[in-house]
Amino acid sequence: MQVFKFGGASVNSTERIQRVASILEGHKGQPLVVVISAMGKTTNELEKVAEAFYRGHAAEALDLFEAIKRKHLDIYNALIGDGRGQEYLVDLFTEVEWLLHDRPVREYDYYYDQIVCIGELLSTTIMHRYLDHAGIPALWVDVRDILRTDAGFRDATVDLEYAAAETKRLLTPLLEKGRTIILQGFIGATAENESTTLGREGSDYTAAIFSNLLGATSLTIWKDVEGVMNADPKLFSEAQVIPELNYTEVIEMAYYGAQVIHPKTIKPLQNKHIPMHVRCFLDPSLPGTLIHDQPVHSLPPVIVLKQHQVLLHLKSRDFSFAGAHAGALYTLLKDLHVQPNLIQNGAITIQLCVDDRGERTERLAQAASAFFDVSVERGLTLLTIRHYNTGLLETLTEGATRLLRQQTAETVQVLLRKA
Ligand code: ASP
Ligand code: MG
Questions:
Q1: Residue 119 CB–ligand 1 contact under 6 Å
Q2: What is residue 141's predicted lDDT score, i.e. its pLDDT?
Q3: What is the E.C. number (predicted)?
Q4: Residue numbers belonging to the annotated binding site for substrate
Q5: Is 148 helix (H, G, I), strand (E, B) or coil?
Q6: Sheet holding 218-223: strands in order across?
Q7: 185: CA distance to ligand 2 center in Å?
Q8: Same domain? 259 vs 142
Q9: Which of 292, 323, 345 is the last residue of a domain?
Q10: Are 252 and 274 in the same domain?
Q11: Long-range contacts made by residues 173-177, C-beta under 8 angstroms, separation at least 24?
């Protein structure tokens, strides 16, 4: 069996939903699990509803929600002329509206999840109703019955053992009959039936979990781009599709800041050696990118630019070697949940480059000043090139001040201050 994942961009209009349906029609009669995200920017819009509600601005929250309802109903009615089956959407709307009429008494993250989870429930309901209308048989399953999580709202952890048992009980018999199953990405529920979410962009992860639990032959992530590119095509006109990659390479790319695939996605796939395809739903005839766990040779240079970098310049106060404080520094980073993007150790200085996360950066600088004299420079850019060549490095750093450089045989990183 296979698992497909369609992101928000692939279900963002009537025309796109029809495209997805025609892709699914091509797999009629084959066992298939289809994981779908919320339409377009719905998750961001629902976040605004949750914020307004939590600030006590119920009227504003309801207004914002009204616009989300309208958008979904318009698409639904355009897909299904007589609007039959609209009550499925209306039931979901009503659940949120009830909540919005209450007063918040619990923590924000709890309400966030109860409101935001509706995005995936709506998009999958629309898709399922449309498939039914178009005569493409599929079943809609509430993924919250399978993905039980802890109560870590907004970043819930899935109970994989429970999920495995429920997958076997609920999904396997259907797949054995060659059915197509539609599931929501990104959401789960606690044992008390409170909705939870798995962290932004979590639908890829949902798809990876089901691929793992069902031992899928492959996972296909359908996107609006041709495949995984070696650079952001908005920044580099020569960006090209990489036909073949392996998991290690993808993890590296994600670490350095490429928005390829959610990093959490890789482990469940890699553990069972399940290959992943990244393909374009706008043109399914394109081959896309294949990702597996075999070595891949002759990769093109992969270019990643990370903005909003901050350089912390740490100098030991008493001429003691800076390395003596390295352990304390790593502990600080761990405690503050800050990931170092680049560290360079000198005799009495350590240079540390991290994502600038405002207040958290302040706290880090503050805490580090227990051991070091600290100076901070913001607004920097970190360029990473995997499989680099010096010519390319020269071209890409031209006109900028190179503050720091680190390289291995495979990867070069340069921290830049742009003119
Ligand atoms: N809809 C969620 C988000 O926008 C999950 C996803 O798209 O993967 O973060
Ligand atoms: Mg998305």
A1: yes
A2: 98
A3: 2.7.2.4
A4: 43, 120
A5: strand
A6: 139-140, 180-184, 32-36, 2-6, 218-223, 276-280, 289-292, 244-246
A7: 9
A8: yes
A9: 292
A10: yes
A11: 174/139, 175/1, 175/31, 175/32, 175/33, 175/214, 176/31
Domain coverage including residue 93? 2-292
**Taking residues 10-21, what's their average pLDDT?**
97
Give DSSP secondary structure letters for 285-324: TS--EEEESS---SPPPEEEEEEEEEEEEEEETTS--GGG
Distances 181 to 61, 108, 319, 377 between C-alpha atoms, Å: 33, 32, 64, 51
Supply the pTM of this predicted model: 0.89
Q: Specify the CATH number for the domain of residue 133.
A: 3.40.1160.10
- The one-letter code for the residue type at 340 is P
Rounded distance between C-alpha atoms, residue 274 and residue 285, angstroms: 22
Rounded Cα distance, 98 and 69, in Å: 14
> What pairing do the DSSP bridges indicate for beta strands 187-189 and 195-197?
antiparallel
Same domain, 195 and 272: yes
Nearest atom, ligand 1, residue 120 CA: 1
C-alpha 252, offset from chain centre: 16
Look at the block and give the residue holding tokens 């178009």.
134
What 3-state class would DSSP assign to 346?
coil
CA–centroid distance, residue 152 to ligand 1 (Å): 17
State the closest ligand 1 atom to the C-alpha of 119, by its place in the atom list counted from 1.
Answer: 1
Is the Cβ atom of 40 under 6 angstroms away from ligand 1? no
- For ligand 1, atom 5, the nearest C-alpha belongs to 201
Which amino acid is residue 310, in one-letter code? Answer: V
How far apart CA 292 and CA 218 sit, in angstroms, is: 10
Q: Say how far residue 255 (Cα) sits from the centre of its chain.
A: 13
What is the 21 CA–ligand 2 centroid distance (Å)? 19
Distance from the alpha carbon of residue 38 to the mean position of ligand 1, in angstroms: 6
Indicate if 18 and 94 belong to the same structural domain.
Answer: yes
> What's the pLDDT tens digit per position in 287-320?
999 999 999 988 999 999 999 999 999 999 888 8
